Each structure stands twice: as structure tokens, then as C-alpha cells.
Amino acid sequence: MYRFYGWERADIRDGRGLTPRDYYDLLAGIWAADTCAPRMRQRWRPDNPTFGQCSITAFLMQDLYGGDVRGVARPDGTFHCFNDVGGCVFDLTSEQFGGEALDYADCPVQRREAHFARAEKRERYELLKARLEEALREA
After folding, report:
1. What is the pLDDT of residues 70-109, one digit of tens each?
2. Which is nearest to 106 in space by CA: 78, 84, 75?
3. Strand pairing partners for 42?
């Protein structure tokens, strides 16, 4: 059983025939402190690997499934990113919030260009993407 938001409805498949649950399994082994958002990195822990990984993970899933990356507004003025693929809403990194229930309704679309305007975020995305491609080759 999975704990990420939308896991029970995440039955869409990419060109390889993989579902978001399959990608969660792969990503769980490759999310790391160096792919965590720098402002959160000191609080990243192996027992909470999704922490600080939301935008790069959501844009990576958008590469595979299309759809929109949307953002839940957070109290600090940032957005927590998740995927909406034709009404199939899933958030592979929702576990980082523990028991907090996020409101996924009416969330604004997040633009890749805006997020990747920061070189560090684009570089973390590229690192995660390369690790995922390697994991797929080894699977």
C-alpha cells in the first residue's frame, strides 16, 4: 500500500506501461539530499525521502504523462507541486507533510519556465532525471 496522495487512482500508464506507483517505487531509491531543495536540505532525512523534492518530481512526471503541474499554496508563500493528468491527480511527494491534509482543489498551474529560471532547480531536476533513467535501465 502506498501513502502518497492519489495513489489509489494513479492507474495511468506511460509509454513504458508504468504507472505513478511504479515511478514512486523507483524514485524512493534515488531521492536524496542533493536533489532536495537547498533551503530544506539540512532537514532532509532518508526516512522522509520525498522532503523538498516536489517540483522536480512533478515536472519529471509531466515529462512522462503530460498534463499539468499544479501548486498548493503554502503558508510561507511557496507552492507545493503535484500532477493533474486529465483529472488523475497524484502527488508523489505528499508524504513529506506527515498527516497534514493538503487541499488539491482549484490549484494554479505551475510553469516549468518559472521554476527552472533558478539554475539550481533545473540542475536538481536534471540530476533526478538522470538517476531515474539509470534506474529504468537497471530495472
Report:
1. 999 999 999 999 999 999 999 999 999 998 999 999 999 9
2. 84
3. none
Task: Centre a 10 Å sphere on the Cβ of residue 58 and count the other Cβ atoms it contains.
Answer: 27
Q: How confident is the model at residue 1 (pLDDT cuts 50, 70, 90)?
A: confident
Q: Structural domain boundaries of the chain?
A: 7-138
What value does the mean pLDDT take over residues 27-44? 97
For residue 49, report the phi and psi dihedrals to the nearest 5 degrees: -65, -20
CB 6 within 8 A of CB 89: yes
Residue that has been written with the C-alpha cell 520525498 in this structure: 50
57 within 8 A of 92, measured Cβ to Cβ: yes
Write the CB contacts of 79 (distance below 8 Å, at least 6 apart in sequence).
71, 72, 73, 107, 108, 110
E strand spans, 91-139: none
CA distance 120 to 92: 21
How would DSSP label each residue in 79-91? EEEEEEETTEEEB
- Number of Cβ within 10 Å of residue 63's Cβ equals 12
